[in-house]
Design brief:
There is one protein chain. The protein is an alpha/beta fold. Helices cover about 40% and strands about 15% of the residues. The protein has helices at about 5-15, 25-30, 55-60, 70-80, 95-105, 120-135, 155-160, 190, 195-215, 240-250, 275-280, 305-310, 325-340, 345-360, 400-410, 430-455, and strands spanning about 35-40, 40-45, 50-55, 110-115, 145-150, 180-185, 220-225, 255-260, 285, 300-305, 370-375, 380-385, 410-415, 415, 420-425. The strands form three sheets. A seven-stranded mixed beta sheet has the order 4-10-9-8-7-5-6, sandwiched between helices. The longest helix has 24 residues, at about 430-455. The mean pLDDT is about 95.
Length: about 450
């Protein structure tokens, strides 16, 4: 691609494209970074610079980029059957095969699949399913839902309202509030205080019970929880928390919806994290991202026999999407799952993920690093002004972005989120690439720390 063409792409994008989560002033000033190609864990921009993408796209490039067999599968399916709708009584081979495969992989009796176009539409469908199931079960008022602070569940009107992540609720937009409630995030680093982990867990469960009683057990129909809160800061819950929350849900006939849009398909070394990592059998699992490793937009809501049985009868299920069960997307997802199985990527992710945890954990020795947390290939560095008090640096310093920029200049992409830097690399990452991530991020943090100190900011 010529330099002139590169400039044209950047200029056209700047003039016409509205990017998700755009800060207008910064974008007008700096313009876009044009990515031209990718292979494995690497990206190349339009000037030929290579980056190791420790962000993994957006938590999604699990099998790595540039897979020829994925491209061939997508092309072959597009030639054979590019589209067929799945409304009412129509289906296609890839849609049916993928639904059966997901039912096979999902834990317990999650034997039914509603295919969607991505994570937001999967969670949105689960939100609608809560009311549908409860009303089919003779509980017409049991439609309220509870989620958590620092959660992110998608960007549709309903799902952005269910989530409660700092920076997501802008005053220029409208959000749902009626029937949506929140309890505390299970943030051991920020909220545990003088309590033990077990005491903190007790308090969180008691708060959940109190919220249910405040709303009315006959009104609460669903609880939404990411096994590890992803975009909210890679928040790992205290031991036993998710299982106890699920037990409370069972006691009150509340559906437990596990938002595994990020954690499914290998991010923690399992197909699904709810049962294998945390011992929880959800009523519904929402997934996307790693389902196709980003090669095609697709998501799924996987739900239980109990829900399916309650829905049967002389009624319609009037919810779905034009591209639900899209044959090309489903073919890509099936091939993606085949590759994960054939290459043993779950075991690889668990092994290299443990090494990743150990290597990044060493960054806690740096004066500005307050916490390194997460599991396997889903990790986060929290930067602070004072390690003892956990006080944050002023927001206007945008320390996460400064560190990400310093890392990018050295050929590493990490995701800045306020005072955090988040990483979710492809499952195919190697130990030597993990070393590069850890070493480069350490240099970037040291560079930014030194500059802040020179500017008169106290660190440590």
């Amino acid at each position: 691609m010529s330099a002139d063409t590169n400039l044209d792409i950047a200029a056209l994008d700047k003039a016409h494209a509205l990017h998700p989560w755009t800060h207008f002033e910064s974008f007008i000033r700096d313009g876009p970074l044009v990515i031209e190609r990718g292979s494995g864990c690497s990206l190349w921009d339009s000037d030929g610079r290579e980056y190791l993408d420790a962000v993994g796209g957006l938590w999604c490039t699990n099998i790595g980029l540039g897979r020829r067999e994925m491209a061939e599968t997508i092309a072959a399916q597009a030639e054979k059957l590019a589209f067929s709708n799945t409304f009412v009584d129509m289906t296609n081979g890839p849609s049916a095969l993928l639904s059966a495969k997901l039912a096979e992989l999902a834990p317990g009796d999650l034997n039914h699949v509603h295919l969607t176009t991505g994570g937001s539409t999967a969670v949105d469908s689960a939100y609608r399913m809560v009311a549908y199931y409860q009303r089919c079960s003779g509980r017409p008022d049991k439609t309220h839902v509870i989620a958590r602070d620092s959660s992110y569940h998608g960007s549709s009107f309903a799902t952005i309202s269910i989530g409660k992540r700092s920076g997501d609720k802008m005053p220029e937009f409208e959000y749902l509030s009626e029937g949506i409630h929140h309890v505390s995030a299970p943030d051991c680093y920020r909220a545990i205080g003088e309590r033990s982990e077990a005491e903190f867990c007790d308090d969180l469960v008691a708060e959940f019970e109190a919220k249910i009683n405040e709303i009315g057990p006959d009104k609460v129909g669903g609880f939404f929880a990411e096994p590890i809160q992803a975009s909210g800061g890679v928040v790992v819950p205290p031991k036993g928390y998710l299982k106890r929350m699920a037990e409370v849900c069972q006691k009150h006939d509340i559906l437990f919806i596990a938002d595994e849009v990020v954690t499914a398909f290998g991010r923690l070394g399992h197909w699904f994290a709810s049962w294998d990592e945390f011992g929880v059998q959800p009523d519904i699992i929402c997934c996307a991202k790693g389902l196709s490793s980003g090669y095609q937009p697709i998501g799924a809501m996987i739900f239980s026999d109990r829900i399916w049985d309650a829905m049967q009868g002389d009624r319609w299920y009037a919810s779905g999407f034009t591209y639900a069960g899209h044959p090309v997307a489903c073919a890509a997802a099936l091939k993606n799952i085949e590759i994960i199985e054939r290459e043993g990527l779950l075991a690889h992710a668990a092994k290299v993920g443990q090494y990743f945890e150990d290597r990044l954990g060493q960054l806690e020795n740096l004066p500005m690093v307050g916490d390194v947390r997460g599991r396997k290939l889903m990790l986060c560095v929290e930067n602070v002004a004072d390690k003892a008090t956990k006080a944050l640096l002023p927001d206007d310093l945008d320390v996460g972005k400064r560190i990400a920029d310093a890392a990018e200049a050295r050929g590493l992409m990490v995701r800045p989120m306020g005072h955090l830097n988040v990483m979710s690399p492809p499952l195919v990452i190697t130990q030597s690439q993990v070393d590069f991530v850890a070493e480069t991020l350490e240099l970037a943090i040291k560079e930014v720390t030194d500059q802040l100190v020179r500017d008169g900011i106290r660190i440590g």
